[in-house]
Amino acid sequence: MQRERERERQKRIIVVVAMKHRCFVSTFLSFFLLYRLGYRPATALPANGTGVHELLPKFGLPRGLLPQGVKSFSFSETDGRFLVLLEQPCYVEYEYLVYYDVNITGTLRYGSITDLKGIQVRKFFIWLDIDEIKVDLPPSDCIYFQVGIITKRLDVAQFANPRSCREGGCTWWDSVSFELPEPVMEEAMLITE
């Protein structure tokens, strides 16, 4: 009986060691393949003056596309992918109310941001994802926001400088509530001939 327990214990130890070894090998192979395929990790830009607000104009975009309160920023020079981490989610009032999530990702190219995630705009009472941002080349007074199949043109001047965040997206209209009257229970009518 004790020998069986000892064998079972040894089998469990062998399985655990094999699983740990397999994880190590698969992790090593994954990193090796990524390296061989040319993947290079994103380079973090230093916070001493070179940040996301300084990088945007180098790509023909206005500084104020992203709000103040950027905690960190990383950018891959090879494929243009970026990650912006805000201190907290926030709302900024432009021509429309805009929501910025804590994590904002996308691909930065000259004159555009594509594959954008983490920014929404409120149109009427609905929050819609902004998928893409573009400017005219050569530069003009317009900036274009792609929301699904709809493109909205706005004046680029309102994005000249980063705006400060505010918590919550409530305006006076959000606090208005509508109450429907209670349903009236009607008696069924008896139909006779």
Order of helices and strands: HEHEEEEEEEEE
Quick one: CATH class of the largest domain?
Mainly Beta
* Number of H/I helices: 2
Q: What is the number of E strands?
A: 10
Shape: extended
Distance between the termini: 89 Å
Average pLDDT value? 76
> What's the CATH topology name of the largest domain?
at5g01610, DUF538 DOMAIN
Give the total of domains: 2
Largest sheet: 10 strands, antiparallel
The helix content is: 10-25%
Structure class: alpha+beta
Radius of gyration: 27 Å
**What ranges have pLDDT less than 50 throughout 5 or more consecutive residues?**
15-49, 172-178
Q: Determine the strand fraction and express it as a percent band.
A: 25-35%
Query: What's the architecture of the largest domain in CATH terms?
Result: Roll
Model description:
The chain has 193 residues and is of the alpha+beta class. The protein folds into two domains: 1-39; 43-159, at5g01610, DUF538 DOMAIN. 22% of the residues lie in helices and 33% in strands. It contains two helices and ten strands. It has helices spanning 2-36, 52-58; strands at residues 43-44, 70-75, 81-86, 90-93, 97-109, 112-123, 126-129, 132-135, 142-147, 150-155. Strands 1, 2, 3, 4, 5, 6, 7, 8, 9 and 10 form a ten-stranded antiparallel β-sheet that branches. The longest helix is centred in the N-terminal third of the chain and has 35 residues, at 2-36. The model is unreliable at 15-49 and 172-178 (pLDDT under 50).
What is shown here, in short?
By secondary structure, the chain is α+β, with helices and mostly antiparallel strands. The protein contains two helices and ten strands.
